[in-house]
Structures are given as structure tokens and as C-alpha cells.
């Protein structure tokens, strides 16, 4: 179907994590204006579109693999201290949109077991609880995520600047479309796993114990 001239360019990332009996499984993808750009399967990240040169992309791949391995190890550690006999499913959905008039908007939403859990308010770099009613894990996760520049200012910069610059480089509206961007797209995946880490800590500390 033809795309409306008023439709925004969009870059979106979806990252899913399933935690069950101390094990973690990761999968997800990213898309640039409807085209698949990245795939995440286990510890492997694949760049489908050539958005970064091979040497830079190799470093990103290693960074993501290292971080996910670290996350997986922490989940195992926490599960030994406070076993959980049911499966936790966490989904992070983030990205940005660039409109023809030059304005942009960004978003980051998190669900836990299919229910809205947290969201990141990009303009003032703050996390907000979305879980209906009182939820000690959500409250704890917000408190933890607000402690670190990586999950506040760095995430804000990625969504407001890095992500939007990628779209500007691909946009024909600017008159200078580029086939290759050197922006570190996979930084979003790393930030996503850091967010998951904060929630995992909350889940394991608050289940059967006190936050």
C-alpha cells in the first residue's frame, strides 16, 4: 500500500526476555521504516541492513553478547537465593518517529507478563510505573532505574538524539539520504538489557522477601 506523505519515518526495537527456573531466553528485532534491520536470537545479534560498517558492528555484537551473558548469570544467581516457580515474560518496546515537518517523538514501554509495567518519559528522563494498583516490584524497579545515568540521561540521549539522527540520515526530506549510518544502533539493545536487569533485580528481591 502507498505510504502517506504525512506518515512519519520510524525506528522501533522490540526485545523480549523469558525467565524461568533460573534460565533466561532472549529474542527480538528492530525495524527501520518497516524494514527489518536487526535480529536478536539468544546471545546473537544480526545486522540485516548495513547501517554500521563491519568493524564497528563486530564491536557492538560483542558488547551485546557480553551484557546478555552477564544478565543471564545474575538471573541464575538470584534464582538460587529466591526460587520462582513460574515464568516471567518481559518485553521492551522502544524507538522514535520523525515527521515530515522535522519534529520527532520517542518512546520506551515495558510490559511484564503481558501487562503494562513501566514507561520512560523521554522529555525529562524519568521512569513511571504503569502497573495497575500497588506493585512493590514496579515501585522497586523505578527506584533502581532512576539511580543510574545509563538508564536515565543515556537512554534519553539515545532516544532523542541517536535514534532521530538515524532517521534524519535515511530521510529524503532532508535532501541528503545516506545508505550508511555510523550511529550505534545496538546501544538501544544494551540499554534495553540494562533496564531488564533493573527489573530482574526487583523481581527476585521482592518475591518472597522485602524490597
UniProtKB/TrEMBL annotation:
First and last residue of the signal peptide: none
Transmembrane region(s): 185-206
Source organism (scientific name): Aegotheles bennettii
Top-level taxon of the source organism: Eukaryota
Keyword terms, alphabetized: Glycoprotein, Membrane, Transmembrane, Transmembrane helix
Domain MHC class I-like antigen recognition-like, first and last residues per copy: 57-169
MF-aspect GO terms: signaling receptor activity
Keyword S-adenosyl-L-methionine attached: no
GO term, biological process aspect, one: negative regulation of coagulation
InterPro entries named among the record's database cross-references: Endothetial_C_recpt, MHC_I-like_Ag-recog, MHC_I-like_Ag-recog_sf, MHC_I/II-like_Ag-recog
Any GO CC annotation of this UniProt entry: extracellular space
Protein name: EPCR protein
Keyword Transmembrane helix: yes
Amino acid at each position: 500500500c502507498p505510504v502517506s506523505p504525512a506518515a512519519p519515518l520510524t525506528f522501533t526495537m522490540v526485545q523480549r526476555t523469558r525467565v524461568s527456573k533460573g534460565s533466561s531466553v532472549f529474542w527480538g528485532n528492530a525495524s527501520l521504516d518497516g524494514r527489518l534491520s536487526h535480529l536478536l536470537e539468544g546471545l546473537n545479534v544480526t545486522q540485516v541492513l548495513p547501517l554500521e560498517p563491519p568493524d564497528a558492528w563486530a564491536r557492538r555484537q560483542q558488547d551485546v553478547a557480553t551484557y546478555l551473558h552477564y544478565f543471564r548469570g545474575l538471573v541464575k544467581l538470584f534464582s538460587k537465593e529466591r526460587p520462582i516457580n513460574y515464568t516471567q515474560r518481559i518485553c521492551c518496546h522502544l524507538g522514535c518517529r520523525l515527521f515530515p515537518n522535522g519534529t520527532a517523538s520517542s518512546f520506551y514501554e515495558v510490559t511484564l507478563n503481558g501487562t503494562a509495567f513501566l514507561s520512560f518519559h523521554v522529555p525529562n528522563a524519568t521512569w513511571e510505573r504503569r502497573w495497575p494498583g500497588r506493585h512493590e516490584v514496579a515501585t522497586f524497579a523505578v527506584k533502581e532505574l532512576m539511580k543510574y545515568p545509563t538508564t536515565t540521561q543515556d537512554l534519553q540521549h539515545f532516544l532523542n538524539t541517536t535514534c532521530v539522527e538515524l532517521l534524519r540520515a535515511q530521510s529524503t526530506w532532508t535532501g541528503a539520504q545516506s545508505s550508511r549510518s555510523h550511529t550505534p544502533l545496538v546501544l538501544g539493545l544494551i540499554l534495553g538489557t540494562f533496564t531488564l536487569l533493573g527489573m530482574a533485580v526487583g523481581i527476585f528481591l521482592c518475591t518472597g522477601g522485602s524490597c
